[in-house]
Amino acid sequence: MNRMLTRRSALGSLGALFTSGFSPELLALGLPRDGFAADAPELAPLLGLDGQGLDGAAVIEGRLPAALRGRYFRNGPGLMQRAGQRYRHWFDGDGLVQSWTLHDGRVSHKARFVQTTKFRAEQDAGRFLLPAFGTAIKPERPVRGPDSVNAANTSVLMQGDHLYALWEGGSAYELDPATLATRGVKTWSPELRGMPFSAHPKVEPDGTVWNFGTANGRLAVYQLDADGSVRRHALLDVGAPAMLHDFAVSQHHLVFLLAPITLDIAAVRAGTSMLDAMRWAGEQPTRVLVVDKADFTRQRIFEMPAAHVFHFGNAWDDGRLLRLDYVQSTPLPEFNAAAQQIMRGERSTRDVSTPRVLEVDLQTGVLRVASRDEAVEFPVVDPRVVAQRHRFVWYPTAVDTGARWGFNGLMRLDIDSGARERFSFGNDVVVEEHVLVPRPGSTREGEGWLVGMGYDVRRQRSFLSVFDAMRLAAGPLARAWLPYWVPYGFHGRFYAA
Ligand SMILES: [Fe+2]
User: Fold this and answer.
1) Domain for residue 38, yes or no?
2) What is the whole-number distance in angstroms between the Cα of residue 76 and the centre of ligand 1?
3) Residue 5 located in a structural domain
């Protein structure tokens, strides 16, 4: 293991740290270098790592439920700078996949960078060699397609003994779920080689996986069986926007919100980043594309006022009424400005995303949107209700954070009644996505635990928190503390053992 880890692990137990105060040496190790985020310590994990992996045993505070066993995988941008050059956008960093193992009351953690061809070449060179999504870097290696610049940094999916690191613009990267060692680019079938496979596949309770990918305005749609074999796929000419991050699946439909985002090809040719070449046409509508799951050629398009959406909770329909929930972001330019600010270690207050529920009357074509004003992101639902009628959505949320960046709490929203339940960690914690893990043997929606990560700004350590998903306000049942911090990630999935 590398030098930094050896030093970290030689520093003694975290329990001793809490009882005796911070060791100056340990504190120094956790502190960002070069004064990054000096005025906004909650942004410190965005400094990123140097390309090394992490291994640690967690110290458990509280009572970890004995029946909560398995592996929780997460992915996110982990490396942000090389040789004095720093990425400009949060989405640019190389994928760092984490694995939390919960077994017999013990919790261990591991993180490894996905060994993409880009990462390996840049790690060898000690500097960036290829452009990133939001940072224009003159290529020093051939760019033959999206996978030449694949950052594999957004989410994960596991099927059998195959763990995938996912990235919206390119192929899935296969990893060994036990060691997180990279196996290579995944090709679902020969004719799908190199076709983007988005970071937001939907997994129905029977294991059926739906996903999409966009390329040059076209929309690839995938239906996979639980064993990973391709059941159906299609390429739809729908005028897909330059960026499409997520979608929703109901009993009968695939639903896409196609935002008015175009790509300025001249700007791309002139060498700007993909992100800087995207144009937001807010005067144009967002198109609601509804595709029949049984027959991809049966498509309907509705229109709604321009909306920029990254994430969906879930969708259901009864053949006549289609209902879905999502989180509406600020328009793309404001979102990107905020994502660039935080990468400079500066707070941003412009980026506020809020819950929505959209109803589409499939007979009359009338759309209705209900809005709420809580600051949230990363919606999740109980995996047992994916593509079925659901009632609850869980989100990280901001509760009285003032000028501080990020979420500090969790919220459960009952989308039928509008009732909400919240918990706040206070202002020294940043809360990341939490996923719902059903309690073994239970059947009711929401029966289980909410599991996710957070970062404690004062302790400069990351933790795993576990809540009773139906009793958030009671606070975490347990937290598992790492002896180090981990860069903020995006998405994860829990696989019970
Ligand atoms: Fe996402």
Assistant:
1) yes
2) 10
3) no
